[in-house]
Amino acid sequence: NQGGNLVYKDSLVQAVEKAVFNKVTVPRGGEFKLTLSDGTVVHLNSETVLSYPVRFAGDTREVELHGEAYFEVESDPEHPFIVQTDGVEVSAVGTAFNVEAYRNDSIVAVTMAIGKVNVSLGKQRVFSLVSGERMGYNVNASSCRIEQIDPYKWYAWKDGALVFRNDPLEYVFKKIGQTFNVDIVLKDTAIAHQPYRATFQQESLDEIL
User: Fold this and answer.
1) Exposed, middle or buried by CB within 10 Å (0-12, 13-18, 19+), for 180?
2) Which residues does residue 133 pair with via DSSP β-bridges, in sequence order?
3) Residue 136 and residue 134: Cα distance in Å, rounded?
4) Coil, strand or helix at 173
5) Is 207 exposed, middle or buried, given 0-12, 13-18 or 19+ CB atoms closer than 10 A?
6) Closest of 25, 51, 31, 4 to residue 162, by C-alpha
7) pLDDT tens-digit series, residues 145-159
8) What is the pTM of this model?
9) What's the CA gap between 110 and 40, in Å, rounded?
10) Which of 1, 11, 18, 160 has the most CB atoms around it within 10 Å of its CB?
11) Taking 60 as the threshold, does the pLDDT of residue 7 lie above it?
């Protein structure tokens, strides 16, 4: 009957909408900001790919991330916001956090800025993180570490800053190279692990070096 046809059409439209995804790819040296259909704001760092539905439907709001992103999740307790990465799932209902999940890195990290999230490592291990905590998960070793930190260091990139606090020089060069799309070769391995402390805000590559 006519009513049945209308129900069928509505269901078909919902199924189509659930299947339609956008994919944003940020090249090396770039950054991008977008707002999802639920109002969630996402900052994407260099060398990042985010897949997300054109319109969220169903009981959850799910996206897939490869790279690094800072999420400002629109509050909706009835529809958890879920970030899927290789080996790690982050679930939130309304909070702000940073996720690092580059495919060529063995570490997936979640840094909390505001609120609380649940982090699942497979079906057996689920952790809760709150503001000021950072979880690093070694995918290869299946080991996890949670620590209290100054969270801003880990997502300062979204504000155009590079913040280093006693980080090894090889890591500093890696992040600078990623930001400016250059390859920095550290030939003197003796200084690779020397700690470095600095804050760079809008400086050029020449000024930083």
Assistant:
1) middle
2) 148
3) 7
4) helix
5) exposed
6) 31
7) 999 999 999 999 999
8) 0.86
9) 17
10) 18
11) no
